[in-house]
Every structure is written in structure tokens, then in C-alpha cells.
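Entry:
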Amino acid sequence: MTTIIRHTDEFPPDAPLGGKAGALARLASAKLPIPEWFVVTPAAYACDGVPAELAAEIVTTAGEVARGAAFFAVRSSALDEDGAEHSFAGQLDSFLFVPPERIAEKVAAVWRSGFSERILAYRRERGLAGEPQPPAVLVQRMVDAETAGVAFSADPVSGRRGHAVVSAVFGLGSALVSGEADADMFTIDRSGNVVTRALVDKHAAHRAAPGEGEGVISRPVSAEQATTATLTNAQASEVAALARATEKHFGRPQDIEWARANGKLWLLQSRPITSLAGLADPDGELNLWDNANIAESYSGVTTPLTFSFARGIYEAVYREFARMMGVGTARIEDNRDLFPRMLGLIEGRIYYNLISWYRLLALLPGFSVNRGFMEQMMGVKEGLPEEVLAKLTPVGRWAKVRDGFALAGACLGLVKNHFTLPGQIARFYERLNEALRPCEPPLETMRPDELAAHFRDLERQLLLKWDAPLVNDFFAMIFYGVARKLTAKWCGDTDGTLQNDLLCAEGGMISAEPAKRVREMAVLVADDADAITILCEGTLPAIERWLETAPKFRALYAEYLEKFGDRCLEELKLESLTLHDEPLTLLRSVGQFARRFGATGLAAESGTDTRLRAQAEARVAETLAGRRLRRAVFGWVLKHTRARVCDRENLRFERTRLFGRVRRVFVELGKRLHAAGRLAEPRDVFYLTAEETLGFIEGTAAMTDLAGLVTLRKTEFAGFREKPEPANRFETRGAVHLGNVFKATRAAVVPEGDVLKGIGCCPGVVRARARVITDPRNAVIESGEILVAPRTDPGWIMLFPAAAGLLVEHGSLLSHSAIVAREMGIPAIVSIGGVTAWVKTGEWLEMDGATGVVRKTEILTTNEH
């Protein structure tokens, strides 16, 4: 049994050297200046002290290992000490300036410290399992240092990996570790330059020095030393280089102890820096994440399949958008890295990477002269940090002139696109209908390779050629913005109400059709109390039995599912269950609508949006009477605003159809892979990325253990669902998933007071109880309540019929909830920051959909819409 191991011995990798000595042993091949050492292994431990035979061997070994050395340092080297997770710094005893004849005595003292109450408490606090074990003991030739200290190859406080930090005192480093002396501090960059130097007052300082019998005493710092730096810049740089050499050897940042004596620098010990794992590098690349707009489509935790599919679509679509906006092929290729990074996945949730979006906007002609308008189009509430804008904005007068000429050229292209847009949309619909025609053979009977080929065909025909919807969206934003300015400037519409009313009741808008169909079904049962009860309260099997007795209702219900079956909650998430899978939300919505209004009320409600539009048009005619030019311009802008907004909603529905087909393709692929024993469940396919699934079929997969991969992903994503949701907007530095905390750079402010203001979308005053709903699945809203939500998507429309009013924390005048509320005549306000935290379910509210004001009230009066 080996009890002593010398630094010159050959020993196996698992030799019981402990943390400190093990690190010195692994540094042997690095040829660094380390004082000679040996280790008394745990095998030598005896609870009653060091046996005489071993004590004699220790003295002999000390004389042979470090010939002529008068003193030694005796330190613990526990097996779990100085590790990457737990340093045990200062927990075990160490002894300096120990003469050879007293080494055995100090070895026994180190052993005893390994079982002290201090050690037991340290282990309990950190959840370390098992009983403490006797430590190995490191015996090392003592360096009588002129200066000494510690050094970090990376800054352990700020997290800067490019800055080494050196702390230095006169005498021994133990004075620094014990707190007896303050240290001079040096920060050294990667080039070896001292970038900061902080010197301390040393008049009251002492230096550690060899004592008589007790090992160490303190001596006052000399007058000359008190006014000088402990190290020159060159010496500090040399220490930093030593720390970085240990980092290079171990492959991770190191915390070292060093000493300088007789002009030579010595490395005494090295251990990992344990604090860096939780710190991002502030010098790393800045990324700015925001989900303000995209959360309406992808709220909460999604799945790898949805994210990979969406990311691929965004990459292809916005590369094409840049080309259509006049960006040259060479510039697009030079910036090819930005397109795959338009979206990011943070703890299972999809975010916009705003840096990539701004880089895209900076490619577009006119960015330097029209940035504010572009930010408004993106819907971001805060601008970019100046450090980012400085990199994106062209420098110099001529750069702006060139950008202005490019903008003029792009404007000509926009004019061309404006006049050709109807034709582009028509051709897009032709491609869409061709791609989404009924499959032959049906999807349900296709082989895996046929399903993959069908997806690739959808990619080629539609997913990578989303040109018409992109152009239309762009013009919708432009015309909507112009119309808003004209209604404010020419018609005195300061709160946006007039503009909203002018856009109501636009025929041909498919977003309003589901609500109208729900109304039609509700009319059929409005006078049938039993039917209403079963729709509102019955189970799905009970409702299906009732459907057999109601052929007219059954026909309307079947038509709804045929056309809108893919329009569901979170419809752009491929894993979402559609109305084909879970139709109960639709049936409940019909029942609530019928119960709330009755046959008479349903008939009366149907003309709300038409009346609003007629009143708004009459107001414009009166305001612009006698101003022919203004009336002509206003009419032209309004006409195109209505057309573009209508086409925008209709084209988004076609996106829903396309995503529905893609969803069915992958559901079928999941079934095939499950049948082949490659997936435990068919729906496990959603925990694979699109390319992983397709690559398995096409022969390009890097991993074929799909079930094993799914198990890992399920575990990780389940953890994401349990964690607090990341902030809506936050920054990261460097590697996104290393050391970054996904919290807002500014603390969220919960609104105070009894009044909030947002953007009014549909006029009407409502006084009713609030119903706060953050997840619409299985949510219940009583007839006549005000629905309060963080955000909505098309699937929320099933809850709208029972709501007397709608308050949405996020969104804009062009968001789906705003458009549908206008079409259904439901008073609505969007973009009310913090409203879901401000109000609780059951509290009484009064909201004005015209002014965007909502207030808490305890008085219930008659609803006014």
C-alpha cells in the first residue's frame, strides 16, 4: 500500500493525490515552475497520529525531494478539494514554514481538520453525499516570497474571459488569503497589457515571514514598500501569462497561487474557477431577444419540430424579402449568417433575435434615413442599444446620400410591386391551391418516403416562395400608417377610433367568417334551452348523439370543420390539436353565444360593425366636405388600406391551411415511425426537428436513435415548462446558453392606480366583471364578462362570443384580436401593458373601446355597447 508519492514518481492517473496535488501532477508535462513536492496519501491515515516509522520516512523523503530546503508548506489535498464545482477553499488546515522534523506533526493536524465541524457544515450546505474521508496531504518546498498572491486567468467577478486578474502583496500570499493584508490589483488583457491597476495603502500592512517555532509571524511592510507597487506592469503580465498557461493546460479558466522570490516566479497551486459557470462574458457578442410580436403566434413552450420548421421558413422568406426590396445578391450572400438567426429558442420558447432583424433592415435601402418608420413596422417598443446602431448605420455624409439614392430606386420598385400586387396574389393562390389539392394517394396511406417527398414539394412550391404575402404585408403596414396619419391630421382622429371604424365590416375578410358561422349555428339553437344546455355543459359523446337529431345544425358544424378545422389555439404550432381533434371548444362557443344573446339578441348584434363603418364614413364626408383633393387622396388611401388589410388576413388564413397540411404530414410520419418501433408514441415526432425526421428517411441523419433523442428532449422541455417564463425582452452576451440569465434588463412594472390606457380597437362602453385567462385550454368565461388576456391568436375566437369586452396586454391595431373584435362588434382594447397583473378575475371594470381607457369600478350599471 503506497503511503508516499513523490512528484518524480511514475504513478497511475487514479493515484490518490487529492485536488491540489493532483493538479500539480497533471501540470508536470507543462514544464511550469513548481516547487518540489510529495504527498502523504490517505492510505497512511491513522486516527491517533502519524506512526513513528512513517514520520521518519517523511523526514527522509523531504530531504531527498527538496535538497537543502529548510522549510516546507504542509497543505491538505482532499479528494474532492479544488474541484470544478467545490473548492473547499479555507476549510482545511494548512501550515507554512514547517521544518522537516515537524512535518509529521502537521500532517496529523491536517488529517484532523478533515473531520472538523467546519468541514461537516460545508458538506451539508452544499449537499455533498457521504461521510468525509481523510485527506491526502501535500508537502511542498517553502518559497520565502518577496511578493505573492493569487491570479485568475479570467475575471471571476465580471466574467470577462479576456481579462486576467492578478492580486499581489509583499511577503507570503497567506496574508492575502487570511485577510491580514489588502492587495494591489492588476487587470491584464489578452495581449499582456495592464489595462487597470489599483494600488492599496500599505502603511498599516504586514508581511508574513518565517517565525521561530510557530511557523509564521508578521513583519511590518517597509516604508519604501508602502509607497510602491508590489509588481511592475511587466511582472504582473508575467503572472497573468502563468495563469493563462495553466488554463491552456487544463482547458478551463484557473485560479492559481503564485510567489516570487529571488527574481523567479513560482506556481504553488492551481484550481478551476468555480464561479464562471454562472457568468456570461460581457465582452461577448450582444444578442437582443424580444417576443412582443411573435408570442401571438408562438406563445409558451413549443416543440423542436415547430421551432425548426418556423426557423427554416423565416430564413427562406426573409432572404427572398431582401431580394424583393432591392438588396443585391452579393450583399445578401455576405450577410447569409443573419437569416438562420431571425428566430431563437430560449428555454423552449420562440423569440425574435432583434439584432438579426435590425441587420436585415440595415440592408434595406433607406435604413439610415427612415429607421424610425422601420422600427414602427417591426412593432418594437424600445430602440436598439447605441453600440449596435453604430455598427449598422452608414458613416459619413456620402454614405447617407448613397443610401438615399438606393431608397429612391427601391421606391420605384415598390410602385411597380403595388400595381402588380393583385396579379401576384392571384398567382400565389393558384400555386397554393395546386399544392394543397387532395393528395393521391391519401396521406393516410403514403409510405414515409412519399410523405417526405410531399413535404419537399410543399417547400418548393410555397414555403420558399412566400412572395405575395410578404409584399402585401409590407403595403398593409404602409397604407395603414398613412391612413392613421391622415385621419388624425385631416379628421381630428387623435385616438385612432375613426380609422378603426372605417376598417370595420370589410366584405370578404375570412377572419370574420368563423364568428359569423358560429353566430349562424347559435341562431339555430337560440330558442332551444335543452340544446343550449347540452352544448354548454354536455360531454362530447353526448353532443355527438344530439347532433344526430339536429341535421341542419350538423350540416353547418360539418361545413365549419371542413373549412376551419385547422384554425385552432396556437395554430402555428405543429403540435397543437386542431378542431378535428378537439371540437368541444367550438361547440361550447356556439352554446355560450346562444345563451348570452338569444334569438332576438343575435339578430340585433349582427349589424354592429356595419353601423360603425357607416357612421365613420359619414363623419369623414362631413369633415372633408368642400375639399375635393383631400377627399380624393383620403379615399384612395382608405381603399388600398382596406384591400391590403383584408388580403393580409385572408393570406394568413392560407398560411393556416398550409401549416395544417404540414402538421398532417408529420403526424403521419410519426405514425409510421411508431409502427416501425422507432418512436414510443406517434406524437413523439414533435420532439424531433424537421431535418432530423426527414434526414432519417432521406439518409442524411446524424443520429438514428430517434427514441433515445426524444427521451432526452422530453425531459429537457418538461423542465422548461416547470421553470418561470423568461422575460419578454432581454439581452445575452457571448454563448447564449452559457452564464446568461434570461431576465429583463429593466424590471417589469406592475401598473398602479385604478385607470389604465391602451389602444382602442372597437368602440363601446362595457361595465362588467373581469375574467383573466392566460391559457384558453379548458378555460371558462361566463356570458357577459370582460375577457382579459396577455395575447390572443385565431384560436381564441371560440371565447369571444361569450365576452362582453376584450382587453389584451399585447398586440396592435393590426393584430388578429383587434381585427376580429371589430368584425364581431365586441368593444376591445389592446396593448394595455401589465393588465393581466393589474386586475383579478371577478373585479368590476369599466372599459371604453373608443378611447382605450379601462378603470376599476365597484358600481354595476347597464352595459352600453
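Residues 628-675 form the longest helix (48 residues).
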